[in-house]
Amino acid sequence: MIGSEGTLGFIASITYRTVVEEAHKAAALVYYPNIDAACRATMLLKQAPVAAVELMDRAALRSVENEPGMPEVLRQLPEASVALLIDVRGTQLHELEARMTEVGRVLADIATCEPWGFTQDPARYALYWKIRKGLFPAVGAVRDVGTTVIIEDVAFPIERLAEGVGALTEIFQRHGYPEAILFGHALEGNLHFVFPQGFERDGEVERYQGLMDEVAQLVGQEYGGSLKAEHGTGRNMAPYVELEWGTDAYALMWRIKAAFDPDNLLNPDVILSRNARLHLENLKPLPAADPLVDRCIECGFCESVCPSKNLSLTPRQRIVIRREIARLTALEAPDAEQLSLLTALKKDYAYQGMETCAGDGLCATQCPVGINTGDLIRGLRHDENAGDAHPGKVKVARWTGEHFTRVTSGMRGVLRLADGLNGILGARNMQRLSDMARKCSGGQVQQWTPSMPANAPRPYIKHLAQPLGRSDAPSGHVVYFPSCATRVFGAAREDRDARSVTEMALALMDKAGFEVVVPQGVDSLCCGMAFQSKGQFEAGDGKAAELAAALVTASDGGRLPIFCDTSPCLAQAQAYAQEHLEVVLTLVEPVELVLDYLLPHLTIEPLADRVAVHITCSSVRMGLADRFIELARRCAQEIVVPEEITCCGFAGDKGFSTPELNASALKDLRSEVAGCDYGVSNSRTCEIGLSEHSGLSYQSILGLVDRASRPAARL
Fold it and tell me: Residue 248's CB: how many other CB atoms inside 10 A?
């Protein structure tokens, strides 16, 4: 069925005719001096062995040219230039190479702005496609606050594509839209045009109407093209369906509609509408809500990686509702209905928006303009803490930070007691007792599960020393900061390895010949994330500053590398050090420690195990996902990285306080890791939730490396 709106029917069954995902890929970004040259190239490529050809005009390239990592040449292109992204693929390498050669031969006689060639480098290939896919949101990100962004997709007969682009550009300029960009699927003559649009000021609606009237006339009548080449028709183009298809065809459509839907119940006004001003009514506002998210155009790219997407809200939805709250709050004289809606939104947002947000920052990795909705939620939590409703929260956070050693010692005591009760009562009765206590306390008592670890031992204490440590360390010295999570949580009863993370780390570094230095007063140290995530910024900054000072001293002013055994904590400490310290610290997490420091001093023999791998959000944000997989593959004969699992949703302590978030994020984990022997990660709290919802024992990747390694022969 063509058309996504389902105006007159439904799909009873679907047969997918899949295409081969060819293993070998290459791409070239070719810059032509003008649209005529680009379109001549496109016509030649129509018969060439290409997978895709994407066209981007100069305005489109300009919208992303200053983004991090963009090619320098983007800022130097002539004003009339147009780029073609040419993608070529092959099942075998020789097939790919032959196709690249053929494309080069086909395009040899068309002059370009710069010499060009194909790249097979995965990072460069991904960058080229990032340019293309980031165009729509990039325009939205630089629009004025309060305006929206319009995107439409039209198609010209490919032989008239160059003329069509020129005519569209002229219309945009004449109606006062100089920032409009054009890009699209060149082989099909399909173009998207994108531009920011406000509707608040006088004359804006009329200006927009004039533009759309001319575009419809140009594409649908003068060029015989399509007003909707790819996406659903919707309400924006409904007033122009008759213009494009003609009076007779339009009347026939209405007769069919009336026969099947006489009461006009199926998607009224979608595709078929008697309202010639439909596209100018009920225009959605985008009011300012917070500078952190005002650039968002609600494209939804963030939604696929959000751990709460099947439980409460996605990042996009959190922003949409904050905007509606801001709009209603700004009303000078709201009526009763508006006040009622505002009250309901604020009440529901407390759980749907704030409590169930993991704050993992993965949304920023998918957002073309880097919006981290977690920052918005942490800011709202901070405002709530500072308000009159919770006057004691700030004092509790301050006291906890000042007495951190006592707090972590108390937590170890609670874990020791819980583990003892588990041994006496058994996991099933212990679970029932925990559920009863949590229910009676109104959710204040933290959730206990069979994967809950016992308390961690403190083997790192004997390594408290001066920065130089032992002078005869064969491989050198490493400052080791065991995070508060690994200082508190040891191994669980069902874990494959009975050692704590600190014991694994110390054994591995000793095997590699490194002398370990632990900062003085380590039991009182914390990266501050536990406070920051709850919006306790003052307490969090205080702990982060305290840790940074201790690491500067322990590392001899930054001379020694610093290892933290928990990836999220390392990322937090690293961010603080880069922003606030003049001293440059070399901070590494488990994967970096092994690959960059330990591996030259170890011999790895892969274990005959099938290992599930969970890459934490912080590792993804730090660009370490591929290195994590590389290390796991060196140590195990087979690894499994679940495709549908992103953030585990444990989010520090939310796995205890809001366990439904963790359960929802990992609802498919058990089936995806079926047949694995155990799992590895690099965050102790994440591993607790992963173990609970997979049926496997998840522990630090350091344990896997330790079991798969032996000291290398020394010369």
Answer: 9
Query: Within a 10 A sphere around the Cβ of 665, how many other Cβ atoms?
Result: 27
- The 8-class DSSP code of residue 304 comes to G
Pairing state of beta strands 562-564 and 587-588?
parallel
* Residue 362: both structure tokens together: 């993965």
- What is the Cα gyration radius of the chain? 29
Per run of 10 residues, the mean pLDDT along the chain (length 715 residues) is 54 87 96 95 95 94 86 92 97 97 96 96 93 80 78 91 92 91 92 87 92 95 90 82 94 89 85 91 87 89 95 97 95 95 97 95 88 95 77 87 95 92 89 86 83 92 64 80 96 94 96 94 95 94 97 94 96 96 96 96 96 96 95 97 94 92 96 97 96 96 97 79
| Dist. CA 226–CA 184, nearest whole Å | 14
Mention the CATH class of domain 1-271. Answer: alpha beta
Distance from CA of residue 478 to its chain's centroid? 32
Query: What amino acid occupies position 141?
Result: A
Nearest to 61 by CA among 134, 140, 118: 134
From residue 291, alpha-carbon distances to 228, 329, 482 in Å are 34, 17, 36
Characterize the bridge pairing of strands 709-711 and 52-57: unpaired
Structure tokens that stand for 499 in this block? 């050692």
SS3 breakdown of the chain: % helix, strand, coil, rounded to 5?
A: 50, 15, 40
Where in the chain are all domains bearing CATH 3.40.462.10? Answer: 1-271
Q: Residues 6 or more apart from 427 whose CB is under 8 A from it?
A: 450
Record the tokens describing residue 179, joined without a space: 């920032």
- Amino acid, res. 483: S
| Contact by Cβ (8 Å): 272, 238 | yes
Q: Where are the alpha helices (DSSP H) in 581-635?
A: 590-593, 617-621, 625-635
Give dist(CA 571, CA 584) in Å, integer. Answer: 15
